[in-house]
Design a protein that fits this description.
Helix content is 0%, strand content 15%. It has strands at 3-6, 12-13, 49-52. A 3-stranded antiparallel β-sheet has the order 2-1-3, with no helix packed on it. A hairpin with a 5-residue loop joins strand 1 and strand 2. The structure holds zinc ion.
């Protein structure tokens, strides 16, 4: 499942957690969120979210130089 980040406030939508405070059950993919769903932190709409690539906390494998 893909995580999405709010570009406005850096909130991460994690499908594994959902957004229970707003009636989104755990396991709901970002694509399956209702179109009127808003960022729970800053109320940006879905257009302001971008996919988060699955990398280990920003570290690059073998990136030591
Ligand atoms: Zn936000």
């Amino acid at each position: 499942m893909k995580k999405y980040r709010c570009v406005v406030c850096d909130y991460i939508y994690d499908p594994a957690l959902g957004d229970p405070d707003n009636g989104i059950v755990a396991g709901t993919e970002f694509e399956d969120l209702p179109d009127d769903w808003l960022c729970p932190v800053c109320f940006a709409d879905k257009d302001d979210f971008e996919p988060v690539e699955d990398c280990d906390k920003g570290s690059v494998k073998g990136g030591r130089q």
